[in-house]
Amino acid sequence: MARIAGVNIPAQKRVEIGLTYIHGIGHSKAKEICGKVAIPSERRVNELTDDEILKIREVIDSDYRVEGDLRRQVAMNIKRLMDLGCYRGLRHRKGLPVRGQRTHTNARTRKGPAKPIAGKKK
């Protein structure tokens, strides 16, 4: 099992798929990384040599923002919006959908489980 950017990559997966376990790396970036390191797409993680794992680590560290740094940046961006008091920041603060979705029905993921309102009957 390879450990890259603080994440254990499953050994039986293909390298491109295994890299997507790292926060901030999706399919396209994983293919890009494999291209830079010259690893064929059908190669498995357990077939990688120590040298290839080291090259992958170096490419990710130098070219991409992943895991803790990325999470910190996203949190700081949200905090900045909240401090500004702009519309998106207010929506984040209230725990409501930020991107224009309807809230009359739906939006249960952001709003949490439905709470009954006492005395509201037809």
* CA-atom Rg in angstroms: 21 Å
**Structural class of the helix and strand makeup?**
mainly alpha
**Major sheet: arrangement of strands:** 1-2
Determine the oligomeric state from the structure. single chain
Number of strands: 2
The helix/strand order is EEHHHHHH
Number of domains: 2
Largest sheet: 2 strands, antiparallel
Helix amount, in percent? 40-55%
Beta fraction: under 5%
Rough outline? elongated
Just name the CATH architecture of the largest domain: Orthogonal Bundle
GO molecular function: rRNA binding; structural constituent of ribosome; tRNA binding
Pfam families: Ribosomal_S13
Protein name: Small ribosomal subunit protein uS13
Keywords: Ribonucleoprotein, Ribosomal protein, RNA-binding, rRNA-binding, tRNA-binding
What is the gist of this entry?
The protein contains six helices and two strands.
What attributes does this structure have?
single chain, 122 residues, mainly alpha, Helicase, Ruva Protein, domain 3, 30s ribosomal protein s13, domain 2, 2 domains, two-stranded antiparallel sheet, 2 strands
Topology:
Layout: E1 2-4, E2 7-9, H1 15-19, H2 27-37, H3 50-63, H4 67-84, H5 87-94, H6 108-111
Antiparallel strand pairs: 1-2
Helix pairs in contact: 2-3, 4-5
How would you describe this protein?
The chain is mainly alpha-helical. It folds into two domains: 2-64, Orthogonal Bundle (Helicase, Ruva Protein, domain 3); 68-111, Ribosomal protein S13/S18, C-terminal domain (30s ribosomal protein s13, domain 2, Irregular). The protein is 49% helix and 5% strand. The protein is built from six helices and two strands; from the N terminus they run ββαααααα. The chain has helices at residues 15-19, 27-37, 50-63, 67-84, 87-94, 108-111; strands spanning 2-4, 7-9. Strands 1-2 form a two-stranded antiparallel ribbon. A hairpin with a 2-residue loop joins strand 1 (2-4) and strand 2. Helix 2 packs across helix 3 (50-63) and helix 4 (67-84) crosses helix 5 (87-94). The chain is elongated and about 70 Å long. The termini are far apart. 14% of the residues are buried. One of its GO terms (biological process) is translation. Part of the 30S ribosomal subunit. Forms a loose heterodimer with protein S19. Forms two bridges to the 50S subunit in the 70S ribosome. InterPro entries: Rbsml_uS13_C (IPR027437), Ribosomal_uS13 (IPR001892), Ribosomal_uS13-like_H2TH (IPR010979), Ribosomal_uS13_bac-type (IPR019980), Ribosomal_uS13_CS (IPR018269). GO terms for molecular function: rRNA binding; structural constituent of ribosome; tRNA binding. Belongs to the universal ribosomal protein uS13 family.
